[in-house]
Amino acid sequence: MKNARMIIALAFGLVFAPALEAKPPASRPADPRIAAAHQEAEALRLAVGSPGLSVAVAIGGEIVWAEGLGEADAENHLPVDPKTRFRIGSLSKLLTAALAARLLEAGKLDLDAPIQLYVPAFPVKDPDRPITPRLLAGHLGGIRHYLPLDFIRPPKTYPNLAEALEMFRDNPLVGPPGTVYNYSSFGYNLLGVALEAAGGGEFGSLVARYVLDPLHLAATTADNPEALIEDRARPYRKADGGLRNEKPIDSRFKLPSGGFLSTATDLARFAAAHEAPGFLKQETLDILFTSQKKASGEETGVGLGWRIAEDPAGRRIYHHGGSIEGGRAMLVLYPDQNLAIAVLTNLSQARYAEAEVGKIADVFLAK
Question: N or C end of the chain, less CB within 10 A?
Fold first, then answer.
């Protein structure tokens, strides 16, 4: 009978495979590093008092660990998970730097042209030392940073980035361009307007086209307070010995310097894309990660956006932090070890930086 069935099968072009017994998929052995890293991350969350924390580690461009700890919504006890989007504050500057780099490679941006080439309405501050995109990206443009008055004045809604330049456009420089390092979010807002002109589009759309879409960073978006955005963490602050909801803010006027939402996973992948040529050419990476110098010749420790340093173990790191109402973020890239780590929290003034994030990274870097 069995042979007869086979003859029929061959006649009709059929193939019968013997039934296979279903077996459970082989499970990977637990990675002991993840348990240790989890403990470090939870210790950090508790130390800073944040309701929630999200962390992601990429090695060789692949996410090896992503986890949410604590609560994204402390009122409704909704947990953080890797999809939770946090306010990233000044980590937005790295997205702006990446857009500048991409427009440079496309031949659309001259890093050393006077800013008036792209923003003609911005007044010439020093006829002998022009403000340039390169100087703005390295905080050498002489543009001031925030002042207390900027947070006291009644909030105003601006229809676009160019209109928001009025906040500092007519203020004097803190020093001649190229001579003084002065960290400046306003300088990055001016750079963002220049990139709009160079790229021929609205800033957020340009970031999506040149940075987010090529890297498949679908969770990174502008923090629009009017939009319904899935998985957005609720922002908090500490007051009177307890936790309070952070005040509502509209960060769209400062999108290039501090207006994005993202996830730890997206940010780790973004940093990993800077480990080797691919997303950017090697000569462009060299520009990003080579310290700029003041006119005196003194290095600033900042290239285009990224800060350049060494950790306590002597390893090269490129890093940046972000602080904003209801959020603190850190992104650290270890280029020689091909490791990137992002840590995000939903608490104002959560006190941690590259050193604390490095303790989590050490779990994966230890030999």
Answer: C
Which residue has 């957005």 as its token pair?
Answer: 232
6 Ramachandran zone, left/alpha/beta (phi>0; psi -120 to 50): alpha
Contact 221, 260 (CB under 8 A): yes
- How confident is the model over 7-33, as pLDDT tens digits? 333 333 333 333 333 444 444 556 889
pLDDT digits (tens, 9 = 90+) for 289-344: 999 999 999 999 999 999 999 999 999 999 999 999 999 999 999 999 999 999 99
State how far the Cα of 58 lies from the Cα of 267, in Å rounded to an integer.
10
Structure tokens at 176: 């001649």
CA neighbor of 190 nearest in space, from 167, 172, 206 = 167
Do 133 and 177 form a contact (C-beta atoms < 8 A)? no
